[in-house]
Amino acid sequence: MRTIVVTGAGSGIGLEAARQLAALGDQVVVVGRNPRRLGAAMARIRAAAQGPEPGEARADLESFAEVRRLAEHLLTAYGKIDVLANNAGGMVPHHRRTTDGFEATLQGNHLGPFLLASLLRERVSRIVTTASDAHRGGTLDPDDPLGRRSDGKKWRSWPAYGTAKQANVLFAREAARRWPDVLSVSFHPGVVRSNFGAGTLTRAFWVLGAPFLKSPVQAGAELARLAIAPAEELTNGAYYVGRKETEPASRASDPELAKRLWEASVTAVETGGEDPR
Predict the structure, then answer these.
(1) Is 125 inside a domain boundary?
(2) C-alpha angle 12-247-130 in degrees, rounded to nearest 5
(3) Count of the separate structural domains present in the chain
(4) Annotated catalytic, 161?
(5) Structural domain span for residue 222
(6) Cα 106–chain centre separation
(7) What is the CATH number of the domain that holds 25?
(8) Per-residue pLDDT tens digits for 226-263
(9) Per-residue model confidence as pLDDT tens digits over 67-110
């Protein structure tokens, strides 16, 4: 029996992946930030479960303090964590700094998951990161990968999201290099009917285009497959689109940028919003 932690499992891809994994008999631990959605998700996952009682934890990955509490709970409650599905994230409608001092899109999609993975590193065997082909439009600055100098005046939600997803792909590749004993992959789930973009004009596209979009069930199946596929069928550090290993954008496969992002991320989660320079 595998123990699998799925973040962002209150709805959409995370919910469907957790439900499918629970139906296979795995010990699933469901993480979400919205209590109402999390409760509704747990009811569906429990109904599908063919194994142990699914675990439940509430945490907002835009808060380092909440991530640290989540990690402490997971390390106390579970002797092993076979898979961490770093699925939480999304698009933020307006420029906003978190209480830790970082742009919210980057913290929710990258820094929070980065901290969680780092805290669980000695206990986890596999990390699956939900990225996006939107990473191809990302613009991580090698000299300022965390956007500390950004004031929000030229900020736009789509480029910010693409940059955060670029960080996801770079994280998976650099984790494979630094933690060779942990299988780390990222993937593009497709364009999915979900709560993605809620509160933005982008939301209209997700509603009007619904008949042509991938269902959360289909996208969740991709996440579930990467979580449990035999290790020899996957390439450490790779980026997947569907079942195919795919070359990401050149910036998202730049080893020097991956190294600098990692080092900046370590400093960020240790110091919060304090810029050490």
Answers:
(1) yes
(2) 20
(3) 1
(4) yes
(5) 3-271
(6) 11
(7) 3.40.50.720
(8) 999 999 999 999 999 989 999 999 999 999 999 999 99
(9) 999 999 999 999 999 999 999 999 999 999 999 999 999 999 99
